[in-house]
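Title: Comparing notes on inverse folding

I've been comparing how different people in this forum approach sequence design from structure. To keep things fair, I'm posting one structure and asking everyone to reply with a full sequence. Here's the target:
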C-alpha cells in the first residue's frame, strides 16, 4: 500500500525509504542525524517512509517523535509502519492511523481474482470479515507461513494462548476462549483490532476465523506451545490442547478435535483423551479420524477399553483385519466381562468360517456367565447382536428374546446396534409377526424421542432408524414412517458412515497398489522366486536426473535427447519435481510458481501443455511413462525409480552436518562436492524466478553444511581440511558472514594471522558497503583475538 502511495502521489521521486530493522537506524536515531541527513540532501517536499519501526524505549520514543515533528514542520510527508505493540507514538496528534480492520478487502477486491462460479457460490457480501484479510483472500495457500510471520511479533503469552485457542477452535463463542486461555477483555479487544484474520466480534461475543487447517496451526506453534500455555492460567501444553479438543468435540466438530489431539497431545495424554471420548466420537460417527488417532499412538499405552472402542470402529468401517487385531489386543489387557463380550461379538462379525463360529460360541458363553452374575442389561443386548450375526435367518424367536431383554428400559447403544442388525435381516416371511412389529415400534419410538430431545441422532440410533425406515419404504412393514426430519437425519448419518467406509476401502486399495509397485520394483527371490525373475525383466529402467552444472537425464543407460527438454518451463517443472523427491505437489501451487502473473485459466492451459511435453520426453518406447504420477490434485515423480544429484547433495549435507569426521576428515566428501557440485543448479536458466529460488536453496544448504564441517574439522585438529571446507563455503556465497568467520577461525588455527586479518577486512567491507551493518560480535571476537595475540608477542 505504501509503495502504491509513493508511486501514485510522488512517482517515486523524492521518496526516502528507511529500513528500521537495521541497526543503523537505532544508531542514527541516537545520534540525531536522520533529520539533518534528509533535510540537507533533499528539497523541502518529500516523502519519508520508516518501515518496521521496532519497539523503542521511552528516550528513543521521544527522539523519534521529535524527528517526526521536525520533518512535518518542514512540509514533508511521513509514513510509519510498525506492529501494533510497537505503536508508542500516541502523542503524535497530527497523524492518521490505519489499523488491521482498515485494510480489509472490499467486495470488488474480493471478486477480483475469483471465478464466476466462485462468485455465485459465495457472494462477496457473504464473505466473513476474517476472509477479507488480503493475505488470506489473495494468498497462495501458504497458511503456515502466514501464521509463522504473524508470530514473529513478540506478543505476551496470554495473547499467544488466546490466538492459539481461536485458531484451533476456528469459530464459536468468546466464552470458550476466556475459559480455556484465561483471556481477559483487554487481550480480546486488542486481538479483535490487530488480528482480523481470527474474526473476533466483541459486540456479538463470538469469533469466526479465516479457516486455517490444524496442521498449519501446528506448524506455526510447534516448539512454542509449552511457553504459550503459561499464559493460559499456568496449565501445561497437554492440558491446553486437551481442553481445546474437548471443546471442539462438544461443539460438534469431532474431526477437528481429533486433529488437535493428534498434533498437539503426547502419546500418553492422547491415549487418555481418546479413551475418555471414545463413546462420544462413536455416537457422532467420527470413526475415520478416531481410528487414525488410535493408529498414530503406540498401542501399549492404551487400556482394554480403548482397544475395544477401536475394534468396534474398525468393524463399523468394514476393516475386518484391523478389528480382529484390536480385539486381540483388548483380550490381552484383561478386559471386563462386558468388554470381553463386545470384542467376541466383533470377532464374530469380522471373522469367517470356523473362526466366526468359535467367536460366536465364546461370545455366548461370556454373555451367559455375565448375565448369571448380574453384570447388566448391556450383556443381553450384545447377546442379541451375536444371535443376529450367527443366525442364518431372522426368526421370530430372536424378536421375542429381544423384547424380553429390552422391555421397560431405554435402549443402549449396544441395543440399538443389535436392533439395526435384527431389522436389517428381517424378511417378508417374518414381517407379519407381532413380535417384529413390536421391535420396529420400539426403535421408531426411541429414534423419535431422541431426535425430539437433541435435534440429532447418534450413530447407533441412526443405523437402527435407517433400517426401520427402509423396511417401511420397501413395504416390508405396514407401519407409519418416521418424521421427515428424523428420517433425513438418520439417512445423513448412515451416508456419512458409508462415505467413511469408501475412504477406508480407497486407503486399503492404495496401500495394496503401493505394495504391488514395490514388489515389482524390488523383486525378492525368497518371497516369490518364479514371479520375481519375471518382474525383474519388466521393471522400468531407472531414471537419472542431474541438475547441477547443466541438465542431464538418463533412462537406464540411454540419455534422453536434450532437444525434448529445450523449453525453460519444462526444465523448471522437472527440476521442481526432482527437488521435491517423490512427494506430491499440488497443481495449483505449480501453476502459481511457474506462471505467477497469468490468469488461472491461462496458467492451467500452460501447465497441461508443459506436463504433456515432459511426459513425452520421459516416455518409454512403448509410449508409457512410469516415472510421472498424476493424482486428482497433485503430481510427483516416482521416487522408487528416480536417482538424482539433488538426493546425493542431501546425503552429503546430512553427512557433513550430523556425522563426526573420521580419521583423515572428510576428504572423499570434499572431492565429491568439488566434482559434482562446483556449479549451480541449471546455471544456464537465469531468467526463471522459480529456478533462482531452487538454486538459492541448494546453495544455502551446501554452504551451511560446509561451514559446519569446517568447524568440526578445526575442533578435531584437522585444521588444513577445515580451511578447505571454509574456503569452499565462502567461494559459493560471499554474502555469508558465518563463512567469513569459518575461514578466519581456520586461518587462526593454522597460524595464518595476516590472512585472517585480510579475511576480516573483506568481510567488514562487504557488510558495510552492501548491507550497511557492522560485523557481528563473534566476528569481532575473532578479530580481537588476532590483535590481542600480536600485542602479547610484542
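Reply #1:
Here's my take.
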Amino acid at each position: 500500500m505504501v509503495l502504491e502511495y509513493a508511486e501514485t502521489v510522488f512517482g517515486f521521486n523524492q521518496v526516502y525509504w528507511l529500513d528500521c530493522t537495521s541497526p543503523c537506524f537505532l544508531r542514527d536515531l541516537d545520534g540525531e542525524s536522520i533529520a539533518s541527513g534528509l533535510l540537507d540532501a533533499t528539497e523541502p517536499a518529500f516523502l519519508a517512509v520508516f518501515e518496521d519501526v521496532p519497539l523503542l524505549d521511552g528516550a528513543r520514543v521521544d527522539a523519534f517523535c521529535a524527528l517526526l515533528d521536525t520533518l512535518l514542520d518542514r512540509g514533508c510527508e511521513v509514513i510509519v509502519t510498525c506492529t501494533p505493540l510497537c505503536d508508542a507514538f500516541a502523542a503524535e496528534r497530527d497523524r492518521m492511523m490505519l489499523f488491521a480492520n482498515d485494510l480489509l478487502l472490499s467486495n470488488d477486491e474480493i471478486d477480483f481474482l475469483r471465478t464466476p462460479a466462485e462468485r455465485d457460490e459465495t457472494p462477496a457480501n457473504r464473505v466473513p470479515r476474517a476472509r477479507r484479510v488480503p493475505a488470506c483472500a489473495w494468498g497462495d495457500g501458504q497458511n503456515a507461513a502466514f501464521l509463522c510471520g504473524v508470530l514473529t511479533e513478540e506478543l505476551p503469552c496470554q495473547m499467544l494462548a488466546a490466538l492459539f485457542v481461536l485458531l484451533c477452535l476456528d469459530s464459536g463463542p468468546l466464552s470458550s476462549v476466556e475459559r480455556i486461555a484465561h483471556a481477559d477483555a483487554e487481550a480480546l479487544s486488542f486481538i479483535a483490532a490487530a488480528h482480523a484474520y481470527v474474526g473476533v466480534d466483541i459486540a456479538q461475543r463470538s469469533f469466526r476465523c479465516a479457516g486455517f487447517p490444524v496442521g498449519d496451526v501446528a506448524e506455526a506453534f510447534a516448539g512454542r506451545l509449552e511457553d504459550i500455555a503459561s499464559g493460559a492460567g499456568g496449565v501445561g501444553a497437554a492440558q491446553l490442547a486437551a481442553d481445546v479438543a474437548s471443546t471442539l468435540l462438544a461443539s460438534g466438530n469431532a474431526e477437528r478435535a481429533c486433529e488437535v489431539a493428534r498434533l498437539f497431545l503426547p502419546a500418553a495424554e492422547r491415549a487418555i483423551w481418546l479413551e475418555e471420548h471414545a463413546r462420544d466420537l462413536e455416537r457422532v460417527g467420527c470413526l475415520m479420524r478416531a481410528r487414525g488417532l488410535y493408529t498414530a499412538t503406540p498401542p501399549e499405552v492404551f487400556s482394554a477399553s480403548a482397544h475395544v472402542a477401536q475394534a468396534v470402529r474398525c468393524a463399523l468401517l468394514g476393516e475386518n483385519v484391523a478389528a480382529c487385531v484390536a480385539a486381540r489386543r483388548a483380550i490381552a489387557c484383561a478386559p471386563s466381562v462386558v468388554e470381553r463380550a463386545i470384542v467376541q461379538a466383533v470377532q464374530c462379525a469380522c471373522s469367517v468360517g470356523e473362526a466366526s463360529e468359535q467367536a460366536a460360541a465364546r461370545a455366548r458363553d461370556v454373555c451367559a456367565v455375565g448375565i448369571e452374575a448380574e453384570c447388566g442389561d448391556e450383556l443381553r443386548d450384545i447377546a442379541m447382536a451375536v444371535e443376529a450375526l450367527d443366525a442364518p435367518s431372522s426368526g421370530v424367536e430372536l424378536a421375542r428374546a429381544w423384547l424380553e431383554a429390552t422391555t421397560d428400559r431405554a435402549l443402549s447403544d449396544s441395543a440399538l446396534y443389535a436392533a439395526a442388525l435384527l431389522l436389517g435381516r428381517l424378511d417378508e416371511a417374518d414381517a407379519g409377526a407381532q413380535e417384529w412389529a413390536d421391535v420396529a415400534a420400539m426403535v421408531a419410538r426411541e429414534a423419535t424421542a431422541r431426535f425430539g430431545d437433541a435435534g440429532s441422532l447418534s450413530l447407533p440410533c441412526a443405523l437402527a432408524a435407517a433400517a426401520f425406515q427402509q423396511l417401511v419404504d420397501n413395504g416390508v412393514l405396514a407401519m407409519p414412517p418416521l418424521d421427515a426430519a428424523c428420517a433425513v437425519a438418520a439417512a445423513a448419518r448412515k451416508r456419512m458412515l458409508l462415505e467413511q467406509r469408501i475412504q477406508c476401502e480407497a486407503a486399503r486399495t492404495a496401500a495394496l497398489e503401493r505394495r504391488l509397485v514395490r514388489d515389482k520394483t524390488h523383486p525378492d527371490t525368497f518371497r516369490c522366486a518364479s514371479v520375481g525373475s519375471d518382474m525383474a525383466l519388466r521393471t522400468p529402467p531407472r531414471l537419472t536426473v542431474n541438475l547441477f552444472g547443466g541438465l542431464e537425464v538418463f533412462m537406464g543407460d540411454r540419455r534422453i535427447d536434450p532437444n525434448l527438454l529445450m523449453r525453460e518451463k519444462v526444465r523448471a517443472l522437472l527440476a521442481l519435481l526432482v527437488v521435491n523427491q517423490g512427494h506430491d505437489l499440488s497443481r495449483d501451487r505449480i501453476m502459481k510458481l511457474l506462471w505467477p502473473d497469468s490468469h488461472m485459466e491461462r496458467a492451467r492451459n500452460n501447465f497441461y501443455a508443459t506436463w504433456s511435453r515432459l511426459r513425452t520426453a520421459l516416455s518409454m518406447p512403448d509410449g508409457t511413462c512410469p516415472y510421472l504420477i498424476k493424482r486428482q490434485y497433485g503430481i510427483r515423480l516416482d521416487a522408487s525409480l528416480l536417482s538424482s544429484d539433488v538426493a546425493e547433495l542431501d546425503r552429503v549435507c546430512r553427512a557433513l552436518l550430523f556425522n563426526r569426521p573420521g580419521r583423515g576428515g572428510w576428504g572423499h566428501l570434499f572431492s565429491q562436492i568439488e566434482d559434482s557440485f562446483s556449479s549451480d543448479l541449471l546455471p544456464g536458466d537465469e531468467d526463471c524466478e522459480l529456478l533462482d529460488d531452487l538454486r538459492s536453496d541448494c546453495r544455502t544448504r551446501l554452504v551451511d553444511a560446509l561451514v559446519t564441517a569446517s568447524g568440526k574439522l578445526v575442533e578435531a585438529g584437522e585444521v588444513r581440511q577445515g580451511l578447505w571446507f571454509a574456503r569452499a563455503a565462502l567461494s559459493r556465497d560471499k554474502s555469508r558472514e558465518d563463512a567469513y568467520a569459518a575461514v578466519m577461525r581456520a586461518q587462526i588455527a593454522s597460524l595464518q594471522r595476516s590472512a585472517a586479518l585480510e579475511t576480516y577486512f573483506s568481510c567488514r567491507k562487504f557488510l558495510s558497503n552492501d548491507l550497511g551493518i557492522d560485523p557481528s560480535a563473534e566476528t569481532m571476537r575473532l578479530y580481537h583475538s588476532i590483535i590481542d595475540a600480536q600485542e602479547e608477542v610484542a
